[in-house]
Amino acid sequence: MENDELFYYLALQSVVGIGPVNAKKLLNHFGGARQIFQTKTNDLRAIKGLSTDALGQLQGAAIFEKAEKEMRFIEANGILALTQEHESYPSKLKHCPDAPLILFSKGNFDINHKKIISIVGTRMMTPNGSQFLKDFIKEIKRFDPIIVSGLAYGIDICAHKESLQNEICTIGILAHGLDRIYPRSHKGIAEKMLEKGGLYTEFWSGGTPVRENFVKRNRIIAGLSEATVVVESALKGGSLITSELALSYYRDVFAVPGRITDTFSQGCNMLIKSNKAAMITSVRDLEYVLGWTSKPLKKRQVQKKLFVEISEDEKRIYDFLQSSEKLLLDQLALETGFSVQKSLMVLLQLELKGMVISHPGKLYQAV
Fold this sequence. Notes:
Blueprint: H1 3-13, H2 20-30, H3 33-37, H4 41-45, H5 52-58, H6 62-76, E1 80-83, H7 91-94, E2 102-108, E3 116-120, H8 127-140, E4 146-149, H9 155-165, E5 169-173, H10 187-193, E6 197-201, H11 211-224, E7 227-230, H12 238-248, E8 252-255, H13 266-273, E9 278-279, H14 283-290, H15 312-322, E10 327-328, H16 329-336, H17 340-352, E11 356-359, E12 363-366
Parallel strand pairs: 3-4, 3-7, 4-5, 5-6, 7-8, 8-9
Antiparallel strand pairs: 1-2, 2-6, 10-12, 11-12
């Protein structure tokens, strides 16, 4: 994307009171970031959800000064700024309704068309959690995945370190801008990650890593991957927030079980008991549920009903499925332009009509 267009995206992102959802509403309505700022105030007022203060900012000069300053930082530090129209914007994250308007990226990786797993857990990692990660990441290497985590103490940094040790691409999601690393003690690991992996953030330079930013950061961790693995967690904490976000995005969640007397297994056990997460003890569990197998999945014999009436939406999805052997739910949504939720509803109707079969890992196939 041209720098002048990015400039207007930055200006839009800087407006206090306009989050990702309302920003996308404005972009869809007016056709682009530049057009928003060329629109008359009365036309902007017609958009529901915009406060008087936000409208005032859109018509003021302060946001352009902020955008210009951030543009200089981006250019001076070799940062890649990705809007949702950019070809390198993560396709899985793009499906999330609250996906960041802009992602700032540094590193050496290509996140699309890759198997991506998010790993989260407590900052008070136990020896059991550490050993699980060592075994898990060593075993998952054969799939050449990308491992995503939050660069925090405990499970996060262990996941990054083990990925580097096994020469696996790993990405850290920051709760602040790319002008710093928090905590400082992880700066060395972050620099190594830039060689095989990298960093993502939606936050600008100059800000501090305040508490609410970590919650916002968690939705990126959940949205980037096809599955989130909770290694250790108490009954409350950021890991459980991430797992809930992953479920809201129709992604798979896994949890490592533990003894009922272990504080940092109670959250994992609760996720499993409440059917919010599948139990995971090794990569084989992940491999089965996600359909990660080197052997082709056998096509089940299903009797397709003759002369079935289908809607236009059902026909659109069915036609896409017929042109491929199998398609992931996210990929199908991207191809058809439907939301993940709508795609899932249409697929269910097609499955009931005997026209589609589902496989582990949210893979679908036309009969």
